[in-house]
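are you around this afternoon, could really use another pair of eyes. what follows is a protein written twice so to speak, once as letters and once as structure tokens for the fold. i want to understand how the tokens follow from the sequence so walk me through it. anything you notice is useful, everything is just below.
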Amino acid sequence: MVTMKTRMDESILVCIYYGPNGERLIRRGGRLANMLNCPLYLLTVDPLPIEEFDAEKIDYINQWKKLAKELKAEEYIIKDNEKRPFTKVIGEVARQKGITQVVIGQTAHSRWQEITKGSIINTLLRELPFVDIHIVAVARYLEDNDDFFEKGIRAYLIQEGDTYRLSFHHTKDVVFEGIFFKETGTDFNNGVFRFMYDKEMMQVQVIDDYVTELKNIHMVGPGSKSEVWEQE
């Protein structure tokens, strides 16, 4: 039996890109759609054709398809081989589907880039002047691992040769800004650093103040601390 939506004057579009923040965005949009009892759409925009997607992208897409089905989304739209600015694509889809609210993650633009080149959010507001835009910031808690990690605090990475040193002070040498989640029960800075990199949300492992490589890691569920890491 198909559940009919009672509010057809409202529609939610969640814009998702690859990385650990995708599920959080989808669930936020799902809660909005459930509260309003209105249609939910998901959108991924990628400049590559789908046949060139690597295993990581395919894995994310498969996860999101399952989540879309779980949340009874109307459609998960993938715009591949897309050369236009993604704000234009979002605008086009929003008009086609009668979208009234857009959920989007924190962008990869730094404050300096926003000053010199203009904010992506401002561009999107000009593209969709009559649509509400919800910006979801980087989570300050690691989902399903609250027992293992403290609440996230703002931190920075400073490059030192082939490695990156964790810092809690902003200086001219900072290359990445993000949130650091420290492991509980340790006197050293071990844990997870979450930040935006090339329009993707990244999580990298910190060991004794240092990140040895910018490789995304996933949390693989509850257990001892030695069991929660899984590198891509």
Notes: The chain has five helices and 13 strands. The first strand starts at residue 12 and ends at 15. The chain has two domains: 12-136, 153-222. Helices lie at 22-36, 55-70, 86-97, 111-117, 120-127.
